[in-house]
Design a protein that fits this description.
Strand content: under 5%
Number of strands: 0
Number of domains: 1
Order of helices and strands: HHHHHHHHHHH
Largest sheet: none
Oligomer: single chain
Length: about 220
């Protein structure tokens, strides 16, 4: 169970700054417009479920994709770790963007039928789970693959639970996007994102180091 817990926390922490539920909620609010609260919650639930299914398919099919393209796990760990570290560094040095909350509130009202067509694209991909999420999920999938079958299965289970946790965060953030944008100050969001970005940077360095260490050990002596 310790493997499941560690993998769950790792997946949740790595995906949190990439998905950024609070930040993505602003984009969601702008795309949906001044829709009724019940429609907001319905769309939020559908997008959250779609995001979870999308990422779980990528996570479970990651090993097959790597095998198909002939890519080894240490290479993915190193490359993915570098990408995660770069994302964390970029978020740490990102300049504040002001004014998007007011812009989102002035978005036009969209009809229900048109919004239903947008559940996967663009609300799920790329607004919620973009290319960065795909890279992170593939990296986590490679990081969870071990020689022992039981450990590998438990690690993948933990990642799946972490993805489900992100789905819950997306649902809550999107469903109550209008209230969140009114109650959370930009300074608070700024501080939270900086802490999360530093954690992502550390996770990326650790995963990249694990891949590099495995590559060094595999080199002929």
């Amino acid at each position: 169970m310790l493997v499941v817990l560690k993998s769950c926390i790792l997946a949740f922490s790595a995906l949190l700054p990439v998905i950024n539920p609070l930040g993505s909620a602003l984009i969601f609010l702008g795309l949906v417009g001044a829709a009724p609260s019940n429609q907001f919650r319905s769309l939020a639930r559908q997008v959250a479920i779609s995001t979870v299914l999308f990422l779980v398919v990528i996570e479970l099919g990651g090993a097959f994709l790597l095998s198909f393209f002939g890519i080894s796990l240490p290479v993915v760990q190193l490359a993915g770790g570098l990408v995660l570290a770069a994302m964390g560094w970029s978020l740490l040095n990102e300049k504040d963007k002001n004014g998007h909350g007011q812009a989102s509130q002035s978005a036009p009202v969209d009809d229900g039928g048109s919004l239903q067509e947008k559940v996967f694209y663009p609300l799920t991909f790329p607004v919620t789970a973009g290319p960065g999420c795909i890279v992170v999920t593939l990296t986590l999938s490679a990081h969870a693959s071990h020689n022992q079958l039981l450990s590998s299965l438990l690690a993948h289970l933990g990642i799946t639970l972490g993805i489900v946790g992100q789905g819950l965060a997306v649902w809550l953030s999107y469903a109550y996007a209008p209230k969140i944008t009114r109650r959370i100050s930009p300074q608070t969001v700024h501080g939270i994102l900086r802490v999360i970005a530093f954690v992502l940077l550390c996770i990326g360095v650790q995963i990249g180091w694990n891949g590099l260490e495995a590559m060094i050990k595999a080199m002929p002596k």
